[in-house]
Amino acid sequence: xxxxxxxxxxxxxxxxxxxxxxxxxxxxxxxxxxxxxxxxxxxxxxxxxxxxxxxxxxxxxxxxxxxxxxxxxxxxxxxxxxxxxxxxxxxxxxxxxxxxxxxxxxxxxxxxxxxxxxxxxxxxxxxxxxxxxxxxxxxxxxxxxxxxxxxxxxxxxxxxxxxxxxxxxxxxxxxxxxxxxxxxxxxxxxxxxxxxxxxxxxxxxxxxxxxxxxxxxxxxxxxxxxxxxxxxxxxxxxxxxxxxxxxxxxxxxxxxxxxxxxxxxxxxxxxxxxxxxxxxxxxxxxxxxxxxxxxxxxxxxxxxxxxxxxxxxxxxxxxxxxxxxxxxxxxxxxxxxxxxxxxxxxxxxxxxxxxxxxxxxxxxxxxxxxxxxxxxxxxxxxxxxxxxxxxxxxxxxxxxxxxxxxxxxxxxxxxxxxxxxxxxxxxxxxxxxxxxxxxxxxxxxxxxxxxxxxxxxxxxxxxxxxxxxxxxxxxxxxxxxxxxxxxxxxxxxxxxxxxxxxxxxxxxxxxxxxxxxxxxxxxxxxxxxxxxxxxxxxxxxxxxxxxxxxxxxxxxxxxxxxxxxxxxxxxxxxxxxxxxxxxxxxxxxxxxxxxxxxxxxxxxxxxxxxxxxxxxxxxxxxxxxxxxxxxxxxxxxxxxxxxxxxxxxxxxxxxxxxxxxxxxxxxxxxxxxxxxxxxxxxxxxxxxxxxxxxxxxxxxxxxxxxxxxxxxxxxxxxxxxxxxxxxxxxxxxxxxxxxxxxxxxxxxxxxxxxxxxx
Length: 758
What we know:
758 residues, TIM Barrel, six-stranded mixed sheet, single chain, elongated, Immunoglobulin-like, alpha+beta, Methane Monooxygenase Hydroxylase, Chain G, domain 1, 20 helices
């Protein structure tokens, strides 16, 4: 079978060919068939959810054995097999306990093992069901590995949407979200089995050729009458005519067979097959989430640095406020980002306040770290008075929404020693034997200005308070929470909190800042975190990147959505430090094209790449001081222009939206990395396929040349002629074939982002 773009909704197996054979039976049996067909059509494959199906009724006694179709077997227990065997449906992890997560409109891959005994041929159909159980779409699957009976197809839940949560059209988007299910239906492909044998018998003039052709005539006639095939009147006529020709003994066997062995019948076999013995898999759960749950472009800035300036009379820095931070929103919008992430905006504690570069003693003008949350002015439910008021925050959110930007608020569940919780809820903190509260540590880092929360005494009470706080900020317009160090809190805690929040607000997303062990990162994803920071900053060699791109864009991404950030306030790697402007451009291309979700911490445009000695973070770290930046210098480096171009490419090319369509390409130079993203025409919304080829020189100091191998057929490209490409970064045009020469230099082009011109 070949994959088809058909989106027909398959009807229940109760309407199989076996029932059609009974149509002229007794009145009682006719009535039973009608009742059964009506039940199947009105419930729209309800059986796929319950897996309970009636077995096929008795076949008329005079029906030849060769014409008896495979029956539909009743399944009363999940361990029972159907007439056709369906195993190992993916996506599916942890025995199906946690649903695979997919963004509305995102392309994804479905696979399953489908097989039958003997040499009979089988087919497979993947069927998507809405939260209400309605079969919304189906696709015929392709046998990708006959030796392992592995079948596959690409699918899509709904269509991509750019509607934002506060816009009028979001109600229609919201109705499509929630728990969908996927069923793979295996079925006996009686036509393919018959055609295979009939062609051989006709070719060798087998003595049994008459029986073979008569059997084919009966088969096509039955196919034409089968409701499950979803045929229209013209298609039925094609099959009926072919059936009559097959039965016409005045023609030669070759002429009779040609009526069934032609492109027109083959196309019907692809799009509207005869499916005998339909056997559904157990349903696989899918959690369909709103736009930006997978495909998102983040931009981070500190409010207090936006609009900050040096007072010429005093020489002191005057910090920015919520009102002056509009400039940050406008910069994010101009560069093409769609989510603005704000570090904590709450009052900052005084006790043990950190000074510049994380020194233990703060100077009189040091603002402290915004992660040292809580003071006499309030805690997590209060805006820092130095930034403004709650009304000022709501005004900033309103401006962001006007620009089409979402606001993500940092939620760091920790307290300064001055936080109101310290007195109001002392049992929420871990006390040492001497009665003092232990400060936070993440060896080798120490946070003397922060008290971590102890969840053992009153986790339920902490959950209720966190839900209250999040709802307060949601009411103020926040649609995304970036959670600081969630891996230092119980996974069950986050699971409870996120479930409570998203039950009322399914549009709210959660980003986990969890640079930790793989098991914990995966558990947090299972618990409900929509996206996750990841190891991308430390994957810099070709070998490392090829492996990590494959891992990020794989079945793992049904559960963990890695978001690629070249730098953060906490992370400045040696690669970014040592490779200058070219290195910044390289990491931006890799981040924007390597994952559907990526982010930039402001200052990246200004090449802020000086490390604090002995630490993998910036010197003069913005967490501990207010930055006064001269944004007019951004044009000197060209990185802001690069970021803008990358976000434009992402918006214009559907291939960048999925975690399930990346292929690493073979390249001959150890410093040249190449990969492609491909989305078939059925899922682009444009009617054309979308293919991007990304080639990057990882060396920020030297030019490199390489041959890039492109397996043309894998991307549906012509294999007998050149393929026209356009570099989306420069506008230059190229023609590629199977093996292609590329030369990239850091002083010219560090990368190509090539789009196939269909």
